[in-house]
Design goal:
By secondary structure, this protein is an alpha+beta fold. About 50% of the residues lie in helices and about 20% in strands. The chain is built from 13 helices and 20 strands. β15 and β16 form a beta hairpin.
Length: about 575
Amino acid sequence: MIKKVFKKKRSMSLKIRLRVLLIVSSILPLVIIWIFTICKVYDLYCNKTNMAIQSELTQIMDNMCTLMDSMKFMSQQLVNDNNTVRQLREFFSSNDDVQKVNNLKFLRDQIAIYEASNPNINNITYLYINYGGLEKVNQTSLIGSQLPSPSCLLSSQNQITFYGPHETLSRVGHYLVISMVRKLSVTDTLDVYLYLESGYKKLGNLSTELLDRLGAVYTVISDYGKVVYSSDEKKIPFSSEVPTGNDIVLIDGKQYLPYKITSPQKWSLQIFVLKDSYKHYLSELSLGFFIIAVLATNFSIIISGLIWNSINRPFLLFEKNLKNIMTNDIEANIRKIHVEEFDKSIEYFENMRKRIIYLIQTVQQQEQEKFKLQLKQFLSKINPHFIHNTLDTLKWYSKGKGYVDVELFVSSLNRLLMYNMEKDEIATIKSELDAIDDYIALQKLKYDLDYKKELNIPEPMLQSEMPRFILQPLVENAIFHGLEGKGKICIRVNIVPNGKISIQILNDGHRLDIEKINRILRSAKDLSSNGIGIQYVIRMLQEKFRNTYEFNARVINDMNCIELVIPFCKGGYYAKSADSR
């Protein structure tokens, strides 16, 4: 029974699977969308609307707090302005009318500067109590000499009292403001106050498009719990207690949703949204979603039908073409599907078949060439090995006859030849220096050379890698062109401050032509110019170290110096230069 079920599952064709998948994909999204709409969409838009309302509320609060902070900062500046305080004191203490006029003129100019520097502040006025009533010190646009009504008291902080939002006390217009009164310590005999208002329409309207659409009532609650501002006094009067409720608040017989935000100074901004308007707004949002969901579902059904028609026929042709490829009867039987992906796939399969045949033939040919190359390499080792054996025989013959100079010459020549004929292009500093020792030993048989080697680096650093046959061309130039066969030659190896290795080749021969060497360095790729040995050295260093090496030519203590500065390199690892850190 299990085998039969398994066979039925395996025998289900791709056509049937696609058909089932497309039917399910057309019906299932419709069911899911409706379930999701019924269960989740309302909550989703409810949360979104609540966040939007809270955001609008926060924006209004931030605007009010910004104005209050600006007034508080401005009052602090005026209190700390020594010149302004001094002019006020002179005004109250002096009996000279001319002096008082000058004091008022200074205060007028100073206040104009402060108001111009901060457009959020207006109507800066100094007031004092005289015989039980308020009088203005400086002339402003305030109507009379009065403070805002105590019913507008918003918040008290030490010597500072905020009022509002309320109608401006200025005669130049009608707009909402927040005002501040601050008591000043100017004179011991009179109570002096500083009055400030927010600028013209800087407070703006305490409303937004969304909240007005929801029939919201805006209220500002003082820090002692009284309503100091209401956008609808009939529903929520001034100086009344704010309506309370957790989720629903009854106002004038209707249900409202409360939203509240409290400032750090304990006064608050509270908005009441009409519940019926709130539900109507959510219904409008949900209706749009329902319409979009239906359109999307119908569109998915149409697309599924088009997909079925566009896939069924190409798959049938694709299957037939694959069978034709297997029978190698391609030219006569392959048909164009006219679907780019299927046509390219058929082309890839055919190219893959041809490529496999080609690779098999290529591997066979490479095996034959590999055998020939191994044979050639074996033969190429015979000649160097023969030369080594021959020179070694000559060495032992000379030693047996007591020919010490000949023995030294043959030993040095044998080592030098074997070193230079090695196939590996990479050597070490030590192997290069050993080769130079053998080379100098050969040249001493002909020339009068005073050779010295100074190694001022740790022994492990002598194993640093460098290209083969780099030092010998430079030493050869020093002997034949600098010393002309006679003189001192020194090889000095040091560590430079940036952590790299310096190899200097010094001689006391004819002075170096620095300009000529620079010309050779500039034309390192031009083999037709002079200095082929130096060009070879530069090209090998560039290939090995890229731009991390240096090639310098100079005179040090009356001795010519060719210097190579290379990084420490071991097994492909390059030590970082200290300059690059």
